[in-house]
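Please fill in the sequence for the structure shown.

STRUCTURE ENCODING:
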């Protein structure tokens, strides 16, 4: 018999002489393989890393050419100087500018976002009247499922149910949820020009007074940070805004917001309105985090939905749609079925041409591999 040269021959001859060692190695490999299989995440798409940051600037009333000349041309040189920027893509539209910065591969995007914020803060010469630039890091999301809450109740109540559902998901570890179909409440103050002239006041003064009263300011902490102290009282409702003092007159009287204009609270939404039949609906998109398992998240969403459903009014339902975990399970089942059928066919062919003992051990090597 010809022996294999070198180390390979020594390893094979060792396991030939010590069959127990070979069987033990086989068992160890199978156990480690099964253990590793439980740590594999199930997901519909592979993780995609987006190495880009977007800067958005809103300028109401400005045309695309004005936005390009006064905003894009001023910000772009400063953004190109940010370390790691590979290319930029800018768009000027009616009342808004978008600038996307693509960074080098494997660049630290947390640091990149902070560098972009620093660069934007250091830019001077931007026109008056623009909103503060919004900077956000582009993140790729892998949807797990959509949850639809619908029923014969007002949309704002469905929104509260959606908030409760998202809060419960957060408590069990599902942190990426997006609520759609609910209008965001906003308060509008309509001040006629005649009222401004009568009271000798400007819109800037009214806006400054409202801005000071709308939020409470932090004023430090006590007990080593275990409790926070805030000054002022937040005034967010239309009734509170109406009572904000714009100016104190010399005779001791006070000029309030309700004296100079009308305060109107209404919902403003840039999302679509959803309906299930004739009933309004709210959609909640659930996404997988980078280390999340789609099948596990799906199971958690189903459990939370069942718990919340028992507390909802009659007629309000929670439905899961576009569940990608079902497609993942179908693909896994197809893979397992094909592997089982293939193994049976191989074993059958081995038994035709080899004796039972040899066929068994050759077949055992297939799942082991």
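FILLED IN BY: designer on duty
SEQUENCE:
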């Amino acid at each position: 018999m010809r022996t294999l040269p070198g180390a390979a021959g020594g390893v094979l001859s060792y396991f030939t002489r010590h069959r127990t060692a070979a069987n033990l190695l086989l068992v160890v490999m199978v156990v480690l393989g099964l253990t590793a299989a439980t740590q594999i995440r199930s997901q519909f798409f592979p993780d995609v890393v987006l190495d880009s940051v977007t800067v958005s600037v809103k300028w109401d009333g400005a045309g695309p050419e004005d936005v390009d000349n006064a905003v894009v041309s001023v910000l772009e040189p400063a953004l190109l100087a940010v370390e790691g920027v590979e290319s930029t893509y800018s768009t000027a539209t009616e009342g808004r500018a978008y600038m996307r910065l693509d960074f080098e591969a494997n660049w630290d995007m947390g640091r990149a976002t902070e560098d972009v914020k620093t660069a934007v803060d250091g830019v001077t010469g931007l026109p008056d009247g623009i909103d503060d630039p919004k900077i956000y890091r582009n993140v790729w999301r892998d949807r797990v499922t959509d949850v639809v809450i619908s029923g014969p109740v007002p949309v704002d109540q469905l929104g509260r149910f959606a908030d409760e559902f998202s809060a419960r998901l957060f408590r069990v570890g599902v942190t990426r949820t997006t609520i759609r179909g609910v209008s965001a409440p906003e308060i509008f103050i309509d001040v006629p020009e005649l009222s401004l002239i009568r009271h000798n006041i400007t819109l800037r003064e009214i806006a400054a007074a409202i801005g000071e009263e709308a939020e409470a300011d932090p004023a430090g902490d006590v007990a080593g940070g275990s409790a926070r102290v805030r000054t002022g009282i937040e005034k967010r409702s239309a009734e509170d805004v109406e009572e904000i003092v714009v100016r104190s007159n010399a005779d001791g009287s006070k000029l309030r917001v309700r004296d100079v204009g009308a305060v109107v609270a209404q919902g403003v939404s840039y999302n679509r309105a959803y309906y299930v039949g004739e009933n309004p609906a709210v959609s909640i998109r659930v996404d997988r985090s980078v280390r999340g398992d789609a099948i596990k998240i799906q199971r958690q969403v189903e459990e939370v939905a069942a718990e919340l459903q028992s507390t909802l009014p009659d007629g309000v339902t929670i439905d899961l749609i576009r569940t990608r975990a079902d497609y993942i399970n179908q693909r896994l089942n197809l893979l397992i079925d094909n592997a089982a059928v293939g193994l049976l066919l191989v074993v059958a062919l081995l038994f035709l041409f080899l004796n039972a003992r040899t066929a068994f051990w050759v077949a055992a090597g297939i799942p082991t591999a």
